Amino acid sequence: MTAIEFNSRLMNLHSNLQYFANSLTNDREEAKDLIQDTYLKALVNRDKFADDTNLKAWTFTIMKNTFINNYRRNQKANTIVDNTEDLFFLNIPRKSDFPAPDSDYHFKEIQKKISYLDEVQRMPFEMHNAGFKYKEIADKLNISIGTVKSRIFFTRKKLMETLKDFQS
Against a cut of 0.70, is the pTM above it? Predict the structure, then answer.
């Protein structure tokens, strides 16, 4: 098959590729990008296409594999690996450039609820939110790591119950 024939047959598959890309991504812009990537890979790898095989199936396979690879790449990019000693994960919320108009009010209300907690519960919770690791909190307060974890867990649970109005 000549390059012109190959390109012509490939372009005739556009509506099929568009339908398949939309079914994979559920997003029009992502589908367009996926179609572009599929065309590029098909054209670059034209020499690997056997003339007596199904071009539609071949391009659909390219599209499906491209979609899967992109998905895996995106998942890997969103994965956070904890390399700290004893695998203590530091969970600090990412800051937004645009705070909500009522966020200052919410922050003050939340701080007020935290201040009402018993010091036994409040100290480990505040230290954890300040960035201390479990081991550091345990050493500083002279309690076991398990106690630190359970106090933080139960404090979070208690705060979630008292701050139900702030949950979306």
Answer: no
